[in-house]
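Recall that a protein's primary structure is simply its ordered list of amino acids. Everything else, from secondary elements to tertiary packing, is in principle encoded there. The following example makes that idea concrete.
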Amino acid sequence: MYRIRFQLYALLVGIAAAGVLRVGGIKIYTPDEVEAVNGTDVRLKCTFQSTHTIVPKMVSVSWNFRPLSKGQEESVFYYHDKPYLPLEGRFRKRVSWAGDIMGGDASIMLREVKFTYNGTFSCQVKNPPDVHGNAGEVRLRVVATASYSEIAILAAAVGGGILLMLIFVCIIAGIRACLKRRKERDLTQPRRERKDPTLCHPARALHLYVKEEEIEIDSSDGMISEPSTKDPSSSSEEEKSSDECDNDDD
């Protein structure tokens, strides 16, 4: 009786564990559609998230191709510890590894795509014990020329870069021209010497000097005093000289 109950309990636990593993399986992300011009290289992006720790030697990546026309599914690329390139088929020497396992990236690069590459590419990643999950699918469209939207975006990006460069060059040229003009103006403009307004020609400043014989010493207190009498002519000459100094300063 107890053995039957234990077996039933173990069975229920196993079913529950299987359900948890399926629900919490590995998640794979790819774009819905990618467009590439005939003869160019294109990167098929595939990223993944695992509920378990990523062990590079345990992770495996499989890329397969399903053409638009009726045809059998074809292996494109396989990775397990190292990339394994196809030895035959339409993708021989046309595919390379462009991912990073530790970074959750399982992308590949297709070189010189052809119109025969039109179809659906599927990406499958396994990280044991996390092996459940749907494969990511991306549809590749190979066209003769780039679409208008892509050309417009590219032209806008290139034009914007050129415009910013021209603005930067104009700003630099304007600054240099301004500095050059300022330097030339400083070299050509004469320097003005400021004159002391208290100075005048020595010949017109005779009134600033006092003759020794005009100084009188008062014998009473020993103080120096001005002479008691002045020559009227000398006074007029002093006033005239002072006026001439003032006119000279003006």
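Helices lie at 2-23, 148-188, 232-249. Residues 205 and 241 are 7 Å apart (CA to CA).
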